[in-house]
């Protein structure tokens, strides 16, 4: 199979634990782009928190795209125009806020270029560190959200969120897409919006078949695109449930797992340790 697109999750997939891209991985992706293969970034991060990585990989030069907010937005890197955008109404955000109070978990969302929350907490601080967005602590979460937002996160300790994920997926299945992007991040987007559905929209726009797509990820919010792609790849550091769904399991994010996939399936280079 000749692959025409490589879709990459960021944290714990493309990026090492220090949030950098290894030299080997960068080299392999640049070579793939020189061959005409589209390299697409797909993350739960807001668009702002992905732009510097897109710039590092020269995605604008090669006419590629970003899927941000778990697929809630598709951005053309060349002109930064939105190809697709999905949002939650302030009323929906209010409903999620009341559920967060009921379940005693923290909640935050994005308003402009800020992360908005009522309560300082370590998990929102992690999000700020990952995305580079400042935190604004407000007196009233619901009053701070007066316009539609792309997604909302409930954040807490992993054990509590794992149980809550199953509960709220069942309770809210007709209203929201609900998934964890990290053990301590439970994310809510518009019903039916995932990395997989947005990837489907993008390849239709570009005239690429799903069989010609490689999607690589490590977490639960990557499942939809891993299942959708012609070659769905789980990282070596992914949970077992993700590995079981994938067509192929590569090495970890700390041991050039992405590069090894690109070298084997796109560049056709001999496998290196």
Features:
10 helices, 273 residues, alpha/beta, 14 strands, 35% helix, eight-stranded mixed beta sheet
Q: Can you offer a commentary on this structure?
A:
The protein is α/β, with parallel strands linked by helices and 273 residues long. Helices cover 35% and strands 23% of the residues. It has helices spanning 23-34, 48-56, 90-103, 122-131, 141-144, 158-171, 195-206, 223-228, 240-245, 257-265, and strands spanning 5-8, 38-42, 65-68, 73-76, 82-85, 106-111, 114-117, 135-137, 152-155, 176-182, 185-190, 213-217, 231-234, 248-249. Strands 5-4-3-2-1-12-13-14 form an eight-stranded mixed β-sheet, with helices on both faces. Strands 8-7-6-9-11-10 form a six-stranded mixed β-sheet, sandwiched between helices. Helix 1 packs parallel to helix 10. The longest helix is centred in the middle third of the chain and has 14 residues, at 90-103. The protein is globular. The protein starts with a strand and ends in an 8-residue tail after the last helix. The model has no long low-confidence stretch (mean pLDDT 96).
């Amino acid at each position: 199979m000749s692959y025409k697109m490589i879709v990459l999750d960021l944290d714990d997939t493309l990026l090492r634990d220090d949030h950098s891209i290894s030299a080997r991985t960068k080299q392999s992706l640049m070579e793939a782009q020189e061959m005409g293969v589209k390299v697409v970034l797909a993350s739960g991060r807001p668009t702002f928190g992905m732009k510097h990585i897109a710039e590092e990989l020269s995605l604008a030069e090669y006419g590629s795209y970003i899927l941000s907010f778990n697929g809630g937005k598709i951005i053309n890197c060349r002109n930064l125009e939105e190809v697709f955008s999905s949002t939650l109404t302030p009323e929906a955000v209010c409903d999620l806020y009341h559920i967060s109070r009921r379940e005693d978990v923290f909640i935050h969302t994005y308003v402009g270029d800020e992360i908005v929350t009522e309560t300082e907490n370590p998990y929102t601080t992690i999000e700020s560190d990952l995305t580079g967005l400042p935190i604004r602590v407000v007196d009233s979460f619901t009053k701070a959200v007066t316009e539609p937002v792309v997604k909302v996160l409930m954040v807490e300790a992993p054990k509590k969120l794992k149980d809550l994920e199953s509960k709220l997926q069942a309770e809210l299945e007709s209203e929201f897409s609900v998934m964890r992007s990290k053990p301590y991040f439970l994310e809510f987007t518009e019903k039916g919006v995932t990395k997989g559905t947005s990837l489907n929209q993008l390849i239709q726009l570009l005239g690429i078949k799903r069989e010609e797509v490689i999607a690589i990820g490590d977490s639960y919010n990557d499942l939809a695109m891993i299942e959708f792609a012609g070659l769905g790849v789980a990282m070596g550091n992914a949970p077992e449930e993700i590995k079981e769904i994938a067509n192929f399991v590569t090495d970890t994010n700390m041991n050039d797992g992405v590069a090894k996939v690109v070298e084997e399936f796109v560049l056709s280079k001999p496998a290196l340790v």
